[in-house]
Amino acid sequence: MKITIHHTEVGRYAHISATTGQEIDLPLEDGLPTAQSLRMHAEMRRHQQCDSRIAAIIQEAADHYESPFNRSNIT
Question: Using one digit for the tens of pLDDT, what is the confidence trace for 18-66?
Fold first, then answer.
């Protein structure tokens, strides 16, 4: 998994490249830490009964982002 955080004029967003080959782009809340914002997106997808695989990937990305052992895959 690779996570890239982009900062733009209108805010920031995360680009997640999952090991399954999926590419996910998500806007991040400015007032929340990145991992918490990712978890919010995962929870929304679970609540809306969207594809549970995408929610799981987003949750994994939040865990991955917080782990000090995975910092080499985060830019």
Answer: 988 999 999 999 889 999 999 999 998 888 876 788 899 999 999 888 8
Report how far Cα 65 is from the mean position of its chain's Cα atoms.
8
Angle between helices 52-66 and 34-47 (to 10 degrees): 160
Neighbours of 15 (CB within 10 A): 14
Q: Which residues partner with 14 through β-bridges?
A: 5, 26
Contact 16, 61 (CB under 8 A): yes
Instruction: Provide the token pair at 59.
Output: 């949750």
CB atoms within 10 A of CB 47: 9
